[in-house]
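Please fill in the sequence for the structure shown.

STRUCTURE ENCODING:
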């Protein structure tokens, strides 16, 4: 790697990422604990997250080490690899909590749907960067056709949350690139029909029940509404300053489910209160701003679209997870980046930041 590139590294983005990861590690340490009569007992979630963090840093360094324009040629091969992995899930996948989403490699498990997010991001950036004009029907439908197969394979796992994320990332990239007016208006008119089709055909009964529970969680407080109600209690009990590190009763007494993954921010809110949550959200806003500023400064359309895809990847996960935890959105199983536990997701998060840093480092070094 050319050492001159380090002078153009987005150090603020790197610092914000590390701060969020450290906040997640501290929160995960507390979320891994269970208060017993004899004291505290801890599981190994935070220890495994440290290992995944090291793997993620390696992935980030690899993503920074070459000219990002080479990703244009690697987009299709990587896309087909992700499809093969998704096709292997129904055959050789590992079932956890009733869903078959993971492939076991013996010493570790990977989630191919996380790889599919990166594959769709790369292939969409390649297709959209071919021309600068707003998309007409031909190019718009070609992008939709490419992502249809991975979305179908993911939703069959079933994993509605990841499918939604892939579509939202693609939608953000397409809108950033631009759509012809008649295409955009037609899509707006067809959106209710697509939502109705998804409701009656594309969703399982338990997924529809999650949305109904979101509208009124009190209907089934000990069943489908339990997650949302306990999460609200945890965040509300933190009040202004919080109960203190490892002092949250909802998490330590195990009332709060999935406290290490989907509802990790509820643990944070209970222990650090409104002030702590405000600081965390501020860090996320600065983090997103740093990514978007890189997109605006990119030297070519492909690099700009890559970074925009990364921006929407993080934006939608942050928005949906926090909205889910405070009861403003249905429970869809989307983790909070750098805060929630997750192996494949952590490595992907670091790798995507490596791509953003790659684009940032090379914006002054080469002519487009």
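FILLED IN BY: designer on duty
SEQUENCE:
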């Amino acid at each position: 790697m050319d050492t001159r590139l380090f002078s153009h590294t987005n150090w603020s983005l790197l610092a914000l990422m590390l701060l969020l990861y450290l906040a997640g590690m501290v929160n995960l340490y507390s979320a891994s604990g269970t208060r017993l009569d004899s004291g505290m007992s801890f599981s190994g979630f935070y220890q495994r997250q440290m290992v995944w963090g090291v793997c993620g840093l390696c992935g980030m360094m690899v993503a920074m080490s070459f000219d990002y324009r080479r990703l244009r040629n690697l987009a299709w091969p990587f896309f087909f690899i992700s499809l093969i992995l998704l096709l292997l899930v129904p055959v050789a996948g590992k079932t956890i909590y009733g869903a078959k989403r993971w492939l076991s490699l013996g010493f570790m498990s990977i989630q191919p749907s996380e790889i599919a997010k990166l594959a769709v991001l790369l292939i969409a950036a390649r297709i959209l960067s071919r021309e600068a004009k707003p998309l007409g029907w031909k190019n718009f439908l070609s992008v939709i056709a490419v992502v249809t197969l991975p979305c179908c394979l993911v939703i069959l796992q079933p994993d509605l949350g990841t499918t939604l994320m892939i579509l939202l990332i693609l939608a953000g990239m397409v809108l950033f690139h631009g759509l012809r007016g008649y295409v955009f208006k037609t899509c707006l008119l067809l959106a209710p029909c697509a939502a109705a089709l998804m409701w009656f055909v594309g969703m399982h009964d338990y997924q529809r029940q999650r949305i109904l529970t979101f509208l009124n969680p009190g209907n089934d407080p000990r069943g489908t509404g339990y997650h949302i109600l306990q999460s609200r209690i945890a965040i509300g009990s933190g009040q202004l300053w919080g109960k203190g590190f490892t002092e949250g009763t909802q998490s330590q007494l195990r009332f709060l489910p999935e406290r290490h993954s989907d509802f990790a921010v509820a643990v944070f809110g209970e222990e650090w209160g409104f002030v702590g949550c405000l600081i965390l959200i501020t860090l996320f806003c600065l983090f997103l701003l740093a990514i978007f500023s890189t997109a605006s400064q990119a030297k070519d359309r492909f690099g700009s679209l890559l970074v925009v895809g990364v921006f929407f990847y993080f934006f939608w996960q942050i928005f949906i997870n926090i909205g889910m935890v405070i009861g403003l959105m249905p429970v869809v199983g989307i983790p909070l980046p750098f805060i929630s536990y997750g192996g494949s997701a952590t490595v992907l998060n670091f790798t995507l930041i490596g791509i953003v840093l790659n684009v940032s480092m090379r914006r002054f070094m080469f002519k487009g």
